[in-house]
Amino acid sequence: MCLAIPGRVAQIDINDGIRTGRVQFGGITRQACLDFVPEAKEGDYVLVHVGFAISVVDKDEAERTYALLETMGVLEDELAIEKPDPSAKP
Amino acid sequence: MKYLDEYRDAKIARGLAAEILRRSTRPWVLMEICGGQTHTLMRYGIDDLLGDSVQLVHGPGCPVCVTSLETIDRALALAARPGVTLVSYGDMLRVPGSKADLFQVKAEGGDVRVVYSPTDAVQLARSQPDRKVVFFAVGFETTAPAHAMAILQAERLGLKNFSILASHVLVPPAIRTLLGSPRNRVQGFIAPGHVCTVVGYREYEDLVREFHVPIVVGGFEPVDLLEAIRMLVVQLEEGRAEIENQYVRSVQYEGNRPAQEAVARVFEVADRKWRGIGSIPVSGLRIRDEYAAFDAERTFELTCVCAEEPAECISAEVLLGNKKPTDCTAFGTRCTPERPLGAPMVSTEGACAAYYQYRRHAVAR
Amino acid sequence: MPPTTNTAATRLPAEPVSDEPKDIAAFSCPLPLPARDRILLGHGSGGKLSAELLKDVFLPALGNPVLNRLEDQAIVSLNGTRLAITTDSFVVKPLFFRGGDIGSLAVHGTINDLAMGGAEPLWLSAAFILEEGLPTETLKRVVASMHEAAVKAGVPIVTGDTKVVEKGSADGLFINTTGIGRVRDGVALSASQAQPGDAILVSGFIGDHGIAILAEREGLQFETQVHSDSAALHTLAAALLDATQEVRCLRDPTRGGLSSTLNEIATSSGVGMELNETAIPVREEVRGACEMLGLDPMYVANEGKLVAVVASSAAEKALAALKNHPQGRDAVIVGKVTGEHPRMVVMRTPFGTTRIVDMLAGDQLPRIC
Q1: Is the distance from CB of C67 to CB of C114 less than 8 angstroms?
Q2: B192 interface with A at CB cutoff 8 Å
Q3: CA dist list (Å): B345 to B91, B96, B310, C363
Q4: C291 interaction partners in chain A (CB closer than 8 Å)
Q5: For the domain with range B66-170+255-299, which CATH number is right: 3.30.470.10, 3.40.50.11740, 3.40.1000.10, 2.30.30.40?
Q6: Which of B222, B304, B358 has the CB atom closest to C356's CB atom?
Q7: Complex-level ipTM
Q8: How far is C356 from chain B (nearest CA, A)?
Q9: pTM of the entire predicted model
Q10: Which residues does chain C have within 8 Å of residue A48's beta carbon, measured at their own beta carbons?
């Protein structure tokens, strides 16, 4: 478990006493319950699992760690000459 | 799609794989717990990318697979009743009970419907007051909050025709069972990132302390998993055993408090039977007495079915990572997704199904 | 050792009988039926179960040289003229969806089956099975849509039939069609003709139709601009056949999606296929819906796309011919036929690794895991 994908909160409403958001996932929009993420605001990205947002994506942490990951990709290019062959382990 | 596509970047993935190959001096045995993570590993052929640097084994991370036979039979019995609408996630429809699955019950006239969210089931109950709507609430800690909210919402709306048939399992007790087994070979774990988004990773820290095994909380995209594997390999090569969090964009140490509170309000911890493994103490959730009116096990009279799995099915061994699906004598021949002998072959997240779907040609060669 | 079950314990306690006109005997029988004694929804999904039904029921009873070829159309000869005949049934729910309805779908789908056989569609028939209680207005809308689609495609509906069944026996309305066309001279297309080295082309974005339908299904609703790609493809197919003589096979990847169609061709021809994942064209919105529901676009239905297997020397010409046509602007080469791993379709991932693209057993279902 479990399938949860990030989407952008486009609009927040109250429906039947529940705080819901219209969340966009790459072009489609679906309602999600925001009761577990009271701090979420419009424009934030949330992870949605079965119609419930379970976290707000931490943009700063994401950026910081991604910058480090990108260096892996760069390293890969620079070491291209000595690219290891996965099927031949010494 | 933002926060998704970047974590599928081929260059970064290959860079991480190269780094893992470089650092690893022996094939460390690593286990990912969650079925969604297994799916990604298979879909992107990550074990091919990593060669012999690590050995990936797949854990019991598929709540669909580990839902007990009794519970599935109860769901089938309810679905077959006149006046009952059984609402379920798509995953459960093909999982075999002792004699049939929900698709077959549907074919025989049962009212079975698929939804994406438990709120859809509550809405259905609201719009059809003359039918008893039972939601088949299966999941790990990730999904329990949604199920708790469904009950709280039904209560708030004053619905008298909504209940859930609950089957929740908790991950840490299963890992403890695994680590406590004398046959355990797993040297490092990737903890399930969405479970930890909800509950945090304090319990995994406890496991690290107790068993001296490194655990990294990992996400679900290929770059997430490769990074988590890299972090585990570095720990193992350096002889460390610590808890680390790879999935920082979603997981915090404390997890999601409002979600935990909703679960605590509606559920309490109980012993639970895991299909293929047996009973694991305090590894499941049951609905509290205050909410008994929403517990299908108590509101419907359901007699107990005592059934056994086909002898050839080795799902217990596969779920615990002791065997690979390809070790099973029935794999791909007597046991296929069309005619499964056990749950891991049916559920799209089951290790056997993932192997069958994606890896068969490697086996054939 | 067979599973042991206390069958007495599974007997259901007495329940008030519901108003639903279902078979009461089925509920009271305590012995669940063994696996394959009933038709399941999966048998209609275009995947392995459908194939099983053909193999176990239809072919043994009805088999003959023409039927046994299992193409989307039958090609028969009359006084030296080759005719293509096809029949199809349309049971889509909901009846109306963004981008079409069951009526236009029926016209397009039948025309396409003829076109995939290299035939010029000439006439259609339409038989309706109506559920008692269906609003007449609904029927009028569907029929008007069929007329419009037929006129636009230039293929008249020349005969028909109507039956009404009791309330609860049909989802409002079912349509069965037959189409007749004349096969182009010198053209002999078949799923059994793919050869190693051939190129595999797709005429545009996959998954639109299936997602448009799902968006309107109760329990899964989401907002989207995606609409069904339902369209008549005979002029697109003709443009391709005009451009090159080396087309081996044409298929429209409807139920079961691109993956099922490619698997059918691979199995029929006894060849393998290798696809390039980065080349598979999927719209952003379709991808978003698939990510949310845990679906793979490769298995989602299309109603206005074709798959073409052509000789490698003709690949560029074929691609240009498709792209020159309004319905083929987004056409792309997605892979090639290979002599390796016969009957298996393999996908090369963006990481350079491979995985199998298998045929599904039944329908693809949304998942939470």
Answers
A1: no
A2: yes
A3: 12, 10, 13, 16
A4: 5, 25-26
A5: 3.40.50.11740
A6: B358
A7: 0.87
A8: 5
A9: 0.86
A10: 292
